[in-house]
Amino acid sequence: MHVISSTMEKAKEEASRKIFKRILYDIKPSEAEIRETTHNVNKLISLLKKTVPTEVELMVAGSIARGTNLKGNSDIDLFMLFNKKLGRDKAVKLGVEYGETVARKEKGRYEIKYAEHPYLRLYLDSIGMKVDLVPALKIDSIEEMGTTVDRTPLHNEFINSNLNAKQRDDVRILKYLLRAHGIYGAEVKTNGFSGYLCELLIHHYGSIIALLESASKFKLPILIEPKERKESISNDAVKRFNSQFIVIDPVDSNRNVAAGVSLESLGKFVLVSRKFIGKPSIDLFYGPKFSSGQAGVLVSKFAESLGLDTFIITCNIKNKSEDIIYPQLRKVNQQIVRHLSQGGFSVYLNLQFILGKKGVLFIAAPKQNVGSRVLKGPSAFIPGASQDFMKKHRGAHGFMMRESEIYALEKTAITSISESLRKLPKDLKVHKDVVISGQNIIVNKIPKEYSATLYSELQKKISI
User: Fold this and answer.
1) Whole-angstrom Cα distance, residue 230 to residue 336?
2) Residue 272 maps to which CATH number?
């Protein structure tokens, strides 16, 4: 077995231990909280047993079941495990029906959520927690899997068999560090590290110190196999999973647990690890403190100090999950930045977030008044394309060659970013679930209702 241990200097290792002890005091659930959570789990199971047939096994999953949850994060993931002979569709139908029955009996409320298949999010006043009720098939091996959630009990079994108490605390510390830098969570909004991935990384490296040391030296591509605790470089695996960062699921060799981690999130983790190993500091675990009442002022000061103009564009969004809406918001923002670039404008920062029933796009750019632009055309050696480009831009002030490519130098009709944003083409304003609402672009002002979220997202974007 390949065991990875820390080679950190003794003084730095001691400083790290003190930091981790202090952080655990803030983030580890107290004994009282654990007792309350256990009580609520047992109470929930008792309520469900009055409706759910005895042949359906009720199993708590997620970080609570694995002892890696953070303080105050005690929402329950409860799986209803049906006989695999029943089949996926029937199990899902019955599972949702059972959840709805419990909600009615207990005068609670619920939402039907969708992952690979529907599940039920339950809110019961008698429990005081959010509960995700997930129907699944009970399987003994991955070959019997009907849906991806069926392997969750196998995840529970692997983690609970392979992490000791110290390592579970290390998982908590890792989650908190990642969250401080906006890269914890596998959802599309974040493209970061899932809780299960954090658990596997701590298992593989043995401790958070060893993980941070190794991560500070990561070079792409990375292939980690936690089951065997080995690493390698495999171009075949890169092609197979279409990824530069691969962590093989120990219960499913056909799955990359790190598939949702973007290179941006991985790169940020490498830099954070390098910074901590170089000089252990508790500051890396805590984001900047600010009063929500001062957030708008802080964003404005940030922009003014760098000579930037800020632009806020609001969007109407459909009532769908964030995993559906966020990719569209991100795409719209990227298309707008591309549109501005084609108009000769530079953009330094852009980000997006959802607030209530609105999508919000934020752009920061240097102050600029553009009277002309240079447009890149095709190679002069591509017949037809070069003539078409010059014909299309026949009103240009001239054409230039840069190596083999043609460029057109032309005067622009639109000279400011705000004007360009107010005259966006229709295909940039209307998308499937995201529609830019009107022509009202907010320039160099931060509305109070957006300020706290905007400042938080901005800090995640620029802080390492």
Assistant:
1) 44
2) 1.10.1410.30
